Amino acid sequence: IWNGCIRHQGITWDVSSRGTGVTRLAPGSVAAKTFLRTGNTRFGYGCGLADLDELYGAMLMSEIFHHQGHETERVLAIIDVGGGAGIGVRAAPNLFRPAHLFSFLRQKNRKALRRAFDFMIDRQYQNGEWNFSTDDRDRYAKAAREVALSFARQTARWDVDHIFVWLAWDGDNVLMNGGIIDYGSVRQFGLRHDEYRYDDVERLSTSLGEQRKMAKQIVLSFLQIENYLRTGSYRPASSFRGHEIAGLFEETFEAERLERFLYRIGLSRKYRKWALREQKPRVESLYAAFNRFERAKTRRKRVRLPDGFNKPAVFNMRRFLYHLPQALLKRKLKPLSARQLYKLMHSFTASSRDLAWRPRYAPRLLAFQKDFLEFFQTLPGGLKPHLLAAAKRSKVINRQDRITGNAVDLSVREVLSWREKGIPDEQIQKILEGFVQDQILVPPDDRDEPSPLKVLKLSDHNRLLNSLMTIVYDYSEDV
What we know:
Helix content is about 50%, strand content about 10%. The protein has helices at about 25-30, 50-70, 100-105, 110-125, 140-160, 210-230, 245-265, 270-280, 280-295, 315-330, 340-345, 360-380, 385-395, 405-420, 425-440, 465-475, and strands at about 1-10, 10-20, 50, 75-80, 85-90, 165, 185-190, 195-200, 305, 310. Helix 12 (about 360-380) crosses helix 13 (about 385-395) and helix 14 packs antiparallel against helix 16 (about 465-475). A hairpin with a 2-residue loop joins strand 1 and strand 2 (about 10-20). The longest helix has 23 residues, at about 140-160.
């Protein structure tokens, strides 16, 4: 349910709650063609309740993602209503979703579509997100452009950071600016598990690698809306594939993905901009070589998981980026052998068969190392200073104990178990704030704003926090 708005420091926030009971709009009610009683489990998405563990998981992931710079809704409060159920109160500057427009588009309800689009534009303008208002004659075209830019940047970052969001063309599980909402199927992977699919009983989700295509489909739908409102002509979304804004989406996605790759190898903002401006072909070549190893999959068949399917990745390229600058500096810039490089990318979860040395790896690894060193040599100021800076930043960005989807689930179970034993909610709040702070993994100079969270002192640490840290480390290569 939508609770209403809060206006604070010039920003209007939408507030909504989930788990407040089943409504006539629930998919389960539609499937049953009748009203349902809250708690019903006969029809999918017809229960109306929210599990307490899922609400805690959404709180943890949304806070971590927010402080990492990802657009997302945030959790204001979790209300325990008993029986393992709860109400999650959440907020965002605009909880409008693309689906709120697409429903009127499919109905060809032009009048309602215009009102809804104007409402969304007005909110973005009032909040200072967009620099045009409903008085602008070209507002729908400008809005489509902003949507294209937002979705390109968001999905490119998810792609490089290995964040799985079930991004479907209908735009129902994502915010208007590409922000994340509904964390039930959202996951952060430890490796590039881009063949993981969430099983929703009725259908399998899209995969990490397909998010780009789904985001572009949303952009095409906005171009369809713009044309329909401007001309009254209802053309299929596919007819806009050659539109300049569709091209802008592709260009922005590629640029943002390269920028994020440079971030992962440890470059600061200043030199990421310089490299994309002066050395873009070299960056593209380096990323392509890196990507070949990151996308490698096990020779085993696809495996069944509790919530879906996956064919696991083999190499831990986060570990590789963590150790490579340090190893080169330790050897006084003397290149590593192919076998030494190969050991840096070994994952702990891959089988010995998957990690067996293959001669074809040698030229690829040596070529990557050569290009890596030559790229750093081109940066203003020389190789060693930039490699030292990259090593320092990479220790933060590519830390191995990075939370994954399964680690979140197990951490929440641990928290709720301690809560049942009587640990006060105030203490849990402090521990979880420290836990979130520990998982931001962003160098201070790359944070858009200082984190308001206080790092727990050693004396504040207890067995629960240590247990959470252990879970994160143990599942750091998981889905």
